[in-house]
Amino acid sequence: MNDKPLHIAFLWHMHQPCYKDPLSGIYTLPWVRLHGVKDYLDTLKILEAFPDLRQTFNVVPSLMEQLNDYVDNNATDRHLELTMKAPGHLTAEERLFVVENFFLANWDTMVKPYPRYYELLVKRGLRYFKGRHRQKNGALFQRSGHQRTSAALFNPQPGIEFSYVQEKVDFSFFP
């Protein structure tokens, strides 16, 4: 048996392509924002338990620029805009966008742990194809502002680490 220590290098490569539309200035996808409050934060929170473990983080410039844009310039994306919009003010097209896009997460780990979110997914349909069910699902959340509110409020949650959400967010207002 060799008594020499094994040296291991941990290198975390954090990257995202640029999602900002140069004409509108709005991000077309929410991944930088969602990963910014989930994966990057979660990694640091986990590493707090190992203060003597050295890590190297490589953050590519496009990711850093986008994170700074959200923080320093109040950047936004369509998902965030619809999440922040009063449910009663969503247009039919915006409701359809919610139905088609607010469930793009790993259902087993990011949707099912929240019974109300999973209930809305089941109501939308588990075998859903964009465009194919537009007429049926365009009206899905029209009956109840509460359903739209639930979907819109839950949407950011799959992107946030569960332990952090449970510490910081009160979900008691959901029935």
Structure overview:
The chain has ten helices and two strands; from the N terminus they run βααβαααααααα. The chain is mainly alpha-helical and 175 residues long. It has two domains: 9-76, no CATH class; 87-170, no CATH class. It has a two-stranded parallel sheet with strand order 1-2. It is extended and about 65 Å long. Residues 156-175 have low confidence and may be disordered.
Which oligomeric form is depicted? single chain
Main sheet: strands, sense, barrel: 2 strands, parallel
Tally of strands: 2
Strand content: under 5%
Mean pLDDT: 77
Rounded Rg: 19 Å
Q: What would you call the shape?
A: extended
Task: Please write out the topology.
Elements: E1 11-14, H1 31-37, H2 39-47, E2 56-59, H3 61-73, H4 78-84, H5 92-101, H6 107-111, H7 115-124, H8 134-138, H9 145-154, H10 162-168
Parallel strand pairs: 1-2
Helix pairs in contact: 1-2
